[in-house]
Specification:
Keywords: Membrane, Transmembrane, Transmembrane helix. This protein has about 220 residues and is an all-alpha fold. The protein contains eleven helices and no strands. The chain has one domain. Bound molecules: protoporphyrin IX containing FE.
């Protein structure tokens, strides 16, 4: 079950990374998006390219960081990948994402949804970084689970978009809702399942300890 979950995670994360590299590395800018988004991307080229290529670093490196065997055997690799994940992926991708959120398609609802996502992505990344600086592994793990669940908004968004299309919901209506639905459920699952229930079910003392200290 765990192995299946990890394989699915790699498949989805690499699928979105592959799409991003193909669509923005090899096709003319905005070829595969709504014409209004294409216009907006053309007006903010640095912002969108910085966002996409930095975020690709996060979504590509992230899944490796959750493989316990890799973490334990190659601690230095885990550290360097973590630095690239946070320093390039989350920091650059998040700042550029926040900038692009102010021009997002779908009006104020989309702009707010993506802006809050970007702020939380940056905030959870900062908390994970500060936790590991003070050698607090439990808090680091919990903040990284939250942070990576937000990275996976890129996956959820690209699952919900075709579903809304198949359901016949006009893009103009679907997109603002998806700007929220792509990350709020992820964060809930991260919190309720991975940060609370899972450590409890597996009998690790960390969850209770961390909950007591309010992390
Ligand atoms: C988690 C924080 C993220 C935020 C706040 C965010 C925000 C945004 C925003 C605002 C746009 C422009 C949408 C519009 O103009 O309507 C965008 C586009 C895009 N983002 Fe992100 N994003 C995030 C994560 C990611 C990740 C992890 C990837 C992975 C590669 C990614 C890949 C893309 C791509 C490829 C586009 C262009 C639109 C498309 O082709 O689908 N984003 N993002």
């Amino acid at each position: 079950m765990k192995r299946f979950g990890i394989c699915a995670l790699f498949f989805l994360a690499f699928g979105v990374a592959g799409y991003a590299v193909f669509a923005y590395g090899f096709l003319p800018l905005g070829s595969l998006v709504h014409p209004d988004m294409k216009v907006s991307f053309a007006a903010h080229k640095v912002g969108i390219y910085a966002h996409i290529f930095a975020s690709v670093v996060a979504i590509t490196l992230g899944p490796f960081q959750f493989i316990a065997g890799l973490r334990q055997r190659f601690v230095r690799v885990h550290r360097w990948m973590g630095r690239a994940y946070l320093g390039i992926g989350v920091l650059v991708g998040g700042c550029a994402g926040l900038y692009m959120a102010t021009f997002a398609f779908g009006g104020l609802v989309s702009k707010l949804g993506f802006s809050l996502l970007a702020v939380l992505w940056l905030y959870t990344g900062l908390r994970a970084f500060l936790a590991i600086r003070r050698r607090d592994l439990i808090a680091h793990r919990r903040w990284m689970v939250r942070n990576f669940s937000l990275t996976l908004a890129a996956v959820t968004l690209r699952i919900l978009l075709p579903i809304s299309g198949i359901a016949g919901i006009p893009f103009e209506l679907a997109y603002p809702a998806i700007a929220w639905l792509c990350w709020v459920p992820n964060l809930l699952v991260a919190e309720l399942f991975f940060n609370r229930a899972l450590p409890f079910l597996t009998g690790r003392p960390s969850a209770a300890a961390a909950t007591r200290t309010g992390r």
